[in-house]
Amino acid sequence: MTKKTIIITGGAGFIGSHVIRLFVNKYPEYKIINLDALTYAGNLENLKDITGAANYGFEKVNIVNAPEVNAVFAKHQPDGIIHLAAESHVDRSITSPLDFVYTNVVGTVNLLNAAKELWKDNYEGKCFHHVSTDEVYGALGTTGFFTEETKYDPHSPYSASKAASDHFVYAYADTYGLPIVLTNCSNNYGPNHFPEKLIPLMIHNVINNKPLPVYGDGKYTRDWLYVIDHARAIDTVFHNGKKGEKYNVGGFNEWQNIDLVHLLCTQMDEKLGREPGTSAKLITFVKDRPGHDLRYAIDATKINTELGWSPSVTFEEGLSKTIDWYLQNTEWLEHVTNGSYQAYYESQYSNSI
Ligand code: NAD
Ligand code: TYD
């Protein structure tokens, strides 16, 4: 049994909370430190079931603040970093791009510097795992897939900031020999997803009988992966990925937005005991997102053949479990949609619905 200390950044967010839960439960011999600033997207309620675990600790730190980051690294002496902290919403990046530069670019470089400094005498057994997105590759037409060889071509301020952070991670490997791995994953969905993204926003609006805002013609296409499968992929690559390499992670599961929203409405009508077709009447086509990427689709052959990872649930199952979670966790939904969420929703949607 190897004793390891791992810092997981962004552990109070959507994906981070599932990664923390998996590591805390699966590796009792590890010490898992959650480093998170608790922005609007960070919520310790996401972790209430494991907060008391003996191998879990929390540090409230903003990764933009280098001295704070360095102090936490000096205190815990981590062997591994799994870096998820980020500003993650494309629509917010369109209105506030600089926030994305600070957290996603400057914050990532601060973490790379802290790891380089701490590990400089011996890189053996160390790993900096950077969690990134398929959006760095840009947009596909109606055919083809993103592979690990696809050239970066980000379009939104969000994807540009993630692409920049990926390049810094490679630069630290090339320049200083830092032991790194990257994962570039497609769209996630599942419990604890903040209701600014498509699926949880639609669930929240169906529950509240509010319009379901579909951007443009609804033909935009995304590849969806259940969040727990993403956490499993991160576990696999962190432990078994080749240093210096990247792995695409995806669900082999493409949906046009409009078809996905119809499936969600059908499942919700059934669960809520509503007449079939009731929720779909709420669908409202609204003004398109500027620079909207037409299609993302991941070729996840490398992680599948080299490391044996594949998704464990079908989309219909995963979506059904996700809706059940939101229907059973109304208090969580109320907490995260109080306060600043209302102002965000108003400014994002009031002109279009
Ligand atoms: P999220 O927005 O739900 O959570 C982000 C977390 O980071 C929050 O807990 C927040 O408090 C924290 N954070 C933000 N700024 C911080 C700062 N300056 N210092 C410290 N903590 C800070 O995001 P998510 O959807 O869970 O995404 C996690 C990671 O996975 C991101 O790096 C994102 O780019 C990547 N990713 C997300 C998806 C997706 O579909 N959501 C897909 C692929 C990759
Ligand atoms: P989103 O969940 O924001 O993820 P991303 O932009 O990172 O892929 O959006 C997923 C898709 O859903 C994208 O094509 C934009 C679209 N969308 C809507 O049609 N309406 C909405 O209210 C939102 C938030 C997204």
From TrEMBL:
<dbReference type="InterPro" id="IPR036291">
    <property type="entry name" value="NAD(P)-bd_dom_sf"/>
</dbReference>
<protein>
    <recommendedName>
        <fullName>dTDP-glucose 4,6-dehydratase</fullName>
        <ecNumber>4.2.1.46</ecNumber>
    </recommendedName>
</protein>
<keyword id="KW-0520">NAD</keyword>
<keyword id="KW-0456">Lyase</keyword>
<feature type="domain" description="NAD(P)-binding">
    <location>
        <begin position="7"/>
        <end position="322"/>
    </location>
</feature>
<dbReference type="GO" id="GO:0008460">
    <property type="term" value="F:dTDP-glucose 4,6-dehydratase activity"/>
</dbReference>
<dbReference type="InterPro" id="IPR005888">
    <property type="entry name" value="dTDP_Gluc_deHydtase"/>
</dbReference>
<dbReference type="InterPro" id="IPR016040">
    <property type="entry name" value="NAD(P)-bd_dom"/>
</dbReference>
<comment type="similarity">
    <text>Belongs to the NAD(P)-dependent epimerase/dehydratase family. dTDP-glucose dehydratase subfamily.</text>
</comment>
<dbReference type="Pfam" id="PF16363">
    <property type="entry name" value="GDP_Man_Dehyd"/>
</dbReference>
